[in-house]
Amino acid sequence: MSANSADSPGSPGRVDVVLVKGGRTKIRYAAELLSDDGTRLAVRAPWAGEGVRDFGFVRFEAGDVFTEYYWRDRWYSVKEVRDAAGALKGWYCDITRPAALTGTRLVVEDLDLDLWRSADGTDVRRLDEDEFEESGLRQSDPEAAAAAVAALDALEALAREGGFEALLA
């Protein structure tokens, strides 16, 4: 099977991760495709943002490496964040529609909700719930909104019950 089919697992190599929000490309970056079992894809990429992004509870900066996990059948992605020396900072999770790999493009639609879990598990926080409410998804696509909230709840439960290791193994 090759990465050239939307339905077949991809081979290790380079992919372009395209995060779409509101019908427009929010960010696009090159990543290394580590694995694709037909359901879950794993990619690795350096911090793709410009400069430092300081959330107050974590900083993303040059040298940080993200190992990102996407599913074709789940409404989220989980990103393991490590600093340049390899120390784990934590996990940043995006609530998204299921991912789609077509050729070398991995497209993911961001649904605003996010979750952070620190490396030691003492800080688990839901993020951007206000943006989600303002997005209008509850009115325009109630089923997608319900799936997004359920995904956030499921990730938060995993984060509070010990983390994502089993999910990502």
Q: In CATH, what is the homologous superfamily?
A: FomD-like
Mean pLDDT across all residues, rounded? 92
Q: Which regions have little confidence, pLDDT < 50, spanning 5+ residues?
A: 1-8
Secondary structural class: alpha+beta
Total helical segments:
4
Give the distance, in angstroms, between the N- and C-terminal Cα atoms.
23 Å
Q: Please report the total strand number as a whole number.
A: 11
SSE order? EEEEEEEEEEEHHHH
Give the helix/strand layout.
Layout: E1 13-21, E2 24-36, E3 40-46, E4 53-54, E5 59-60, E6 65-71, E7 76-82, E8 88-96, E9 100-102, E10 105-118, E11 124-127, H1 129-135, H2 137-140, H3 142-160, H4 165-168
Parallel strand pairs: 1-10
Antiparallel strand pairs: 1-2, 2-3, 3-6, 4-5, 6-7, 7-8, 8-10, 9-10, 10-11
What can you see in these coordinates?
By secondary structure, this protein is α+β, with helices and mostly antiparallel strands. It has a single domain, classed as FomD barrel-like fold (Beta Barrel). It has helices at 129-135, 137-140, 142-160, 165-168, and strands at 13-21, 24-36, 40-46, 53-54, 59-60, 65-71, 76-82, 88-96, 100-102, 105-118, 124-127. The strands form two sheets. Strands 1-2-3-6-7-8-10 form a seven-stranded mixed beta barrel. A two-stranded antiparallel sheet has the order 4-5. The chain is globular. It starts with 12 loop residues before the first strand and ends with a helix. Residues 1-8 have low confidence and may be disordered.
